Amino acid sequence: MKAPRVTLDQWRTLQAVVDHGGFAQAAAALHRSQSSVSYTVARMQEQLGVPLLEIVGRRAVLTDAGAALLRRSRHLVQQAQQLEELARNMDQGWEAEVQLVVDAAYPTEHLSCALEAFIPQSKGCRVQLREEVLSGVEEQLHSGSADLAISSIGIAGYLPQQLGTLQFLAVAHPQHPLHQLRRTLSHQDLEGHLQVVIRDSGRRQPRDEGWLGAEQRWTVTSLSTAAKLVSRGLGFAWLPRHDIAAQLEQGTLAVLPLAQGSERAAPIYLYARKDRPLGPAARILADLIISHSQSD
């Protein structure tokens, strides 16, 4: 790959000529002589082989080619500035990336708000977000693949911050045979019907959660798939209230009238890796996750 013939400084000079309205004004803004600015732009045109500016009256005006190249150059200069800023931040201990692993049952709205608030404070730090189910979060934390982890299970050896409580509801389509019984249901009533369950994404010691007494079970990999299947009348499931609020309101799902267990509460925790201290970016993101977990 050939090295670029035009430098970032030359692109900055051209931008200054255009933004400040002329060579003299650009020279004042850049604290350089007017002849230096004029030479820089003339040299650019020679190197690129296309005219960038033309003199109209007493003003230097962009040619069509110059306007197109100038637009692209602004992105180039901005990216270079962001790269240099990231290098300075890293020199001060700022992370280039934070790895966040989240239980799929955690409310997306809370997570989105925290990430949105993190952007203006991130200083170029990227976030690698990964969704797991049950012990899959624990495995990522133990393996060192997570700086921060949000899990609905207690993980031994870590000091968690509780973010709140998730509510799981036993639901089925209103026309499901269980609803057609039109009475309070027992667990014995459930045993003869299809239950949709979510597969634990962990590989070492996958675990089962909740009631799994149905003789026939379908196992899926995501909560959204489970909700879609149950909404079409294909069985029943315990699903997070926040994920199925729309289906409950629309009437495609209804809570099963169980004598006990129709609603299950599960605490949700924030964990931090313990093999090394969190960097400043991860600490900011952790604080934002905690604060936004309290919002409705």
Automatic annotation (TrEMBL):
InterPro entries for the chain: LysR_HTH_N, LysR_subst-bd, WH-like_DNA-bd_sf, WH_DNA-bd_sf
A Pfam family hit: LysR_substrate
State whether keyword GTP-binding applies.
no
Q: Which SUPFAM superfamilies match?
A: Periplasmic binding protein-like II (SSF53850), Winged helix' DNA-binding domain (SSF46785)
Task: Report the superkingdom from the record.
Answer: Bacteria
State the Gene3D superfamilies in the record.
3.40.190.290, Winged helix-like DNA-binding domain superfamily/Winged helix DNA-binding domain
GO MF term set? DNA-binding transcription factor activity; transcription cis-regulatory region binding
Keywords, sorted A to Z = DNA-binding, Transcription, Transcription regulation
Give the family, as the similarity comment puts it.
Belongs to the LysR transcriptional regulatory family.
The name this protein carries in UniProt is DNA-binding transcriptional regulator, LysR family
